Amino acid sequence: MLKSDKRINIIIYIFLGILAFFMIFPFLWMVLSSFKPSWEIFQMNIFPQSPTFDNYSYVLEYSNMGRWFLNSLIVAGASTLSVLFFDSLIGYVLAKFEFPGKKLIFALIMSTLMIPTEMLVIPWYVMVDNFGWADSYWSIMFPGMITGFGIFLLKQFITTVPNDLLDAARIDGVTEFGIYWKIVLPLVKPALATLAIFNFIGNWNAFLWPLIVTSSSSLYTMPVGLAFFSSENVTQWEIVMTGATISTIPLIIFFLIFQKQIIKGIARSGIKG
Amino acid sequence: MKLRKKRIVTAYAFLTIPMIFFIVVRFWPMIYSFWMSFTDWNLLSNAQKNFVGLANYQHIFTNETFIKSLCNTFAYVLVGVPITIILSLFIAILLNRIIKAQGLFRLIYLMPYITPIVAVSWVWRWIYQPLPTGILNNLLVSMGFEAQGFLNSTTQALISVVITTVWMNLGYCVVIFLAGLQTIPQNLIEAAKIDGANRRQSAMKITIPLLNPIVLFMIVMQSISFLRIFTQVYNMSSQGTGGPLNSTKTIVLYIYQKAFVDYDMGIASSASVVLFAIIMIITFLQFKFVKKDVGY
User: Per the domain annotation, does B245 fall within a domain?
Assistant: First the structure.
């Protein structure tokens, strides 16, 4: 029994190992190719024979990569801050206040989760045009300033905060906003962290809307800039891979730092769902 | 009494900006899309919006390109979802059996999920290239097989994009299934073992039925995500057209091209309403199925 168990385990490890190789190989190929001179692209060596940084200096010189990186950082950062503030405030109101129409408002907010973005982009585009928001960070991030998902998540968490705690603060004369800011928010920090991470990744990787709404290179986010840059250099694979590497590495670092929260967040979304 | 009234006022005050947001950025645009789908609005040729009834719907459902995009979209779902679900379930069951390096494998499998779809699409586009640059074709030839068209072939392009997408989504599903497996009470499996059930029996009779609600949920989530597939199709086809010969084009890409290349807003809106309807149907089916499920 034990012996056959061991044999099965070895087979499992081999299978999982091969799979891990398939998952990692495209990344490996991407990073290693970014150090190859163009003539080496036609040789199928895994490792660069004469490694060079030329591709990186080419990309930095002939693309706006730095600017796109900054744009993505600004857009993803600002909309995440907004989401954290508004989603938690609404979550607090829906969890701890009684008022007429509460159920209806909650149902309406939840129903927005079913509307696909693809159906909204045309009206958003019309709005940007009519309000004169074109060519601004605001035009890229306004659709994601508040999210139904975050409200749902934070409402669940804030419901577990004991009412006695809030009442005690009220007796002490703390304002309602003060209670939200000084008592509720610190107590739901783990949920806020999860929401922040997923919202940031989602905004950073968003493609369809930024592609539609940005028209000048100086306003592209990283994915949009990378898509255009890659099309322009489509036969120079070492250059395309360098761009892809530059845009991927920050996220992999981000992922390695926050891996525990990310995995926990994903796991929870399945079980709760 | 006074206090209660004050709290109601506070609640409404806190909700004002968010409600305006949801009305202006979610509900109004949705209604606007419905309305535009009944007009002949074209940003280039026709500044006026004339009501044309169901003409746009009639147009798209007799239009070869739209029908092709619709069929392709269903093909993405019907091929991609089963592969993703079965493969990730299988991997999760294996991962659940091992003790060492479980976290490491999970981390590696999840990596594609976190990286920008645009970047990995371009890496895969290169992997699929014809000779002499494509690594996959080089590998095939060196093993004595014939080189394949992959993204350049009308019959292989869609499945190539599906494989890339499965590669992207696999880790996400594995993490969820693994978490689900770990919530299954171990004593149930122990009891079955004592009763003489072998591994396969306990997997078929205990693990899989108990995992059913999560599997169903994941099927729905993956179906919706495949229905909305856009970024990898745009980046893996030449000039983002969904080629070759529309063989990879999806509904979302059709909407994008109609609205932001042809500026035919009426047609694009009607296509987006069709997408919305399909997603609605799937969501309601989920509610129906999930209610029927028995927990433990």
Answer: yes
> Considering CB atoms only, which of A123, A248, A270 is closest to B119?
A248
* Min Cα separation A160/chain B (Å): 19
Mutate to test the interface with B, among A6, A16, A109, A253 (most CBs of B within 10 A): A16
**A247 reaches B (C-beta below 8 A):** yes
Optimal mutation site among A5, A22, A23, interface B, most CBs of chain B within 10 A: A23
Q: Which domain holds residue B276?
A: 64-292
**pLDDT one-digit tens code per residue, A168-186:** 998 898 988 999 999 999 9
Q: Does the pTM exceed 0.95?
A: no
User: What's the one-letter identity of residue A49?
Assistant: Q
Contact: A42, B27; criterion CB under 8 Å: no
Contact A26 B105 (CB under 8 A): no
- Residue A23: pLDDT band (50, 70, 90) is very high
> Which CATH number does the domain housing residue B103 bear?
1.10.3720.10
Dist CA A230 CA A244 (whole Å): 9
| Contact yes or no for B168/A22 (Cβ under 8 A) | no
Question: Which chain A residues contact residue B129 at CB under 8 A?
Answer: 237
Residue-averaged pLDDT of chain B: 90
Look up residue B46 and give its DSSP letter.
B
Indicate the SS3 state at residue B42: strand
Q: Is residue B260 domain-resident?
A: yes
Position B24 in a domain: no
List per-block mean pLDDT (blocks of 10 residues) for chain B, which spans 296 residues: 82 93 95 94 80 93 95 96 95 89 92 92 94 89 90 94 96 92 83 81 79 87 94 93 91 95 94 95 79 46
Look up the ipTM and state it.
0.91
**What structural domains and CATH numbers belong to chain A?**
60-272 (1.10.3720.10)
Per DSSP, the three-state class of B120 is helix
* Residues in B touching A249 (Cβ below 8 Å): none
Question: What's the number of domains chain B is made of?
Answer: 1
Gap from A122 CA to chain B (nearest CA, Å): 7
Task: Of A191, A226, A188, A194, give the one whose Cα is nearest residue A207.
Answer: A226
Q: Which residues contact B114 (CB under 8 A, 6 or more apart)?
A: A201, A251, A252, A254, A255, A262
The string of pLDDT tens digits covering residues B51-75 is 998 999 999 999 999 999 999 999 9
> Which pLDDT does position B296 carry in this prediction?
39
